[in-house]
Each structure stands twice: as C-alpha cells, then as structure tokens.
Amino acid sequence: MPTKIQDYRSPKVTVIGAGNVGGMLAQRIAKQNLADVVLCDVVQGKPQGIALDLAQAHTISNLDRQIIGSNDYNDTKDTDVIVITAGLPRKEGMSRNDLLKINASIIKEVVQKAIALSPNAILLIVTNPLDVMTYLAWQVSGLPPQRVIGMAGVLDAARFQTFIAMELGISTADIYTTVLGGHGDLMLPLPRLSTVNGVPITELLSEEAISRLVERTRNGGAEIVKLLQNGSAYFAPSAAAYVMVEAIISNRHRIYPAAAHLTGEYGLKDIFMGVPVQIGRQGVEKVIELKLTDAELAALHASASSIQENIDLLCN
C-alpha cells in the first residue's frame, strides 16, 4: 500500500496591532517565507489595507505566503505564535511607564481573546512598558511561563552594538553585546561581557566613552522619539521581534536576551525581566544565569524593583 502523506499545516503567526511595528513585522515574516500571517487590529479597514498592500508587494517579489488582515479574532484561530504590538506608542516627553494603565487594559483584552482561540500558542510581547506587560500577559493567559516572552533584550543589545560600532568605526558584525534588566532607564548593559571578536570593549574604549554609550543605550528609544517628533522606533523593534519568532517557529534553540520568568535565578522570583535565554519551539527552554559582580547584581535588582513597583501598581 502507498504510504499515507500526513496533512501539512503551514506555520501561522498572528500579529495583534497593525501599527508600524506590527505591519513591518508581518512584512518580514512573509518575506522570509517563515509563516502565514494574520494581522489583527481594532481599527476597521487598517489591517485589511496593509495586508492587501503587502500581498501585492510580495506578488512582485514572487512570494506566496498568505497574509490576512482582520478585525475578527476568529481568523487567528490555531496560531503558533501570537505577537502583541497593540498599544499606545510613546510620544516625546513620555516614559515607557507613562503607558502603564492604558496599555494594561489593551493587553488584558487582546490576550484573553487570542489565547481562547489558540491555547497552544507562544506569546511574544512587544507592547510597553514591556516587562510589566509581559507579566500581565502571563497572568491573564494562564499559560505556563515558558510560553510567554518579552521581546526587548534583543533590541537593547542591538542598540548597544550599534553605538559601539559607531564609536570604534567598525562593523557591527564583529560585536557581541550583553544587556540585562528591564526595558527602561534601569536596564543594565554589561561592558565587560560585550566584545569585539572576543576582545572586551573595556580594552578598546575609555571609561568615559563606555559610560556615554551605556547611557545612550538606556535612552535609545527616547532618542528616536525625540528625533521623529511624532512617532517611535519600528524598524529595529520589528527586526528584533522577527528573529525571536523565527527562533520559535524554526525551533532554532537560539540564545537571546529576553524578558523571561525568573524562579530564583539572579536571586529574583516571580518576575519577568531581561536575561539570556534559550528559545525554541516550546518558548523559553532555559534561563542562563551569568556570574555577575556584586555591583552588577545590585544594579539588576534595582531594575527588578522598578518593574515590581509597576506590577504592584497594576495589581492593587
């Protein structure tokens, strides 16, 4: 008898929020032939228009991944990865924490609707303030914590990497950076664990230069908001979200900095914050605990305290 061919289902990614980050992420996923994409938004016509435009662009490029724009969560059913970019973007003069209560209400609604139709999905959170929103998404979804991840570490590390390359006048391809902590003013770039082809940047740059680049990294998003005057970053955030989606869909077991649930690592419990993790098809496969100096650990705990304050503010 002939061997029965198993039914094949194309991977499916839902992007909730058809703003600049969401639209760009949908474009990246389809362009790389990674998965079919559902772009979902509350604004009537917006996701449909973006999806139609992307479909026509991909026709020109001979790409044939399905892209659906929708206001109906039923179209997201049986999604493998749900990426949430929905929320109010930061404007000049606003901190990420200024968005706390507004975006919390959005996260609660969209997570409940999406997970009800895709209970086996991995949740990837992009909405700010990211670490708090990731914790909230975990609470609302009822998912195991390994299946809820916050995006920001990849973005923060890329910003640090970019600024080092600019300072040294070298290729970013030769630079590896390590950034821990929350996605905010208390994030912790680690110069001694950031290298140029294995050489720590502490041997290549002065303390003054390193301090300046660390501070610029912490304010990397605000710098772009100020320059744009009416908007926030989306090319780099969508690129960061894409590599994480790709690691999950393709089961790559990649090590990235991401907001993950801690259960005692670094002396922290029941909090989501940026640490190195191994990511694959099941979400966070492993939290990697680096050996930190006393000063670095204290700075990481200060970042965690800031996140916890906002979690307490939401829960009380």
Features:
20% strand, alpha/beta, 9 helices, 14 strands, disordered N terminus, single chain, three-stranded antiparallel β-sheet, six-stranded parallel β-sheet, 316 residues
Description:
The protein has 316 residues and is an alpha/beta fold. 42% of the residues lie in helices and 20% in strands. It is built from 9 helices and 14 strands. It is globular and about 50 Å long. 46% of the residues are buried. Residues 1-6 have low confidence and may be disordered.
List the helices and strands and how they pair.
Elements: E1 12-16, H1 20-31, E2 36-40, H2 46-60, E3 67-70, E4 81-84, H3 100-117, E5 122-125, H4 130-141, E6 148-150, H5 152-168, E7 175-176, E8 179-180, E9 188-189, E10 195-196, E11 199-200, H6 207-218, H7 220-228, H8 235-249, E12 254-263, E13 269-280, E14 283-287, H9 294-315
Parallel strand pairs: 1-2, 1-4, 2-3, 4-5, 5-6
Antiparallel strand pairs: 7-10, 8-9, 10-11, 12-13, 13-14
